[in-house]
């Protein structure tokens, strides 16, 4: 009985850890957009390759390193889905503020950052 407990407890713990990791991996999949109304207000470089949904008129921010993604290189195509409101911050990081303008989707890209922005 003691030998069974010595192996069973770590096995159950390891199984739970594997289950948790696989669940977390599914939540962070780049193909799975965050739910409308639950997307972060600020996106970071680590959010690259993900999909974000916002409602029309909502405001969100992007915090990036201007050495990798200068504000002048940041574009969302096609134009008209979101608009840049301002760029603030001190080198090397800045925060770009964007407003959702029209329903649709655009690819927000810098030199090494990209995120799909969907406006509903």
Automatic annotation (TrEMBL):
Name of protein: Uncharacterized protein
Species of provenance: Candidatus Kaiserbacteria bacterium CG10_big_fil_rev_8_21_14_0_10_51_14
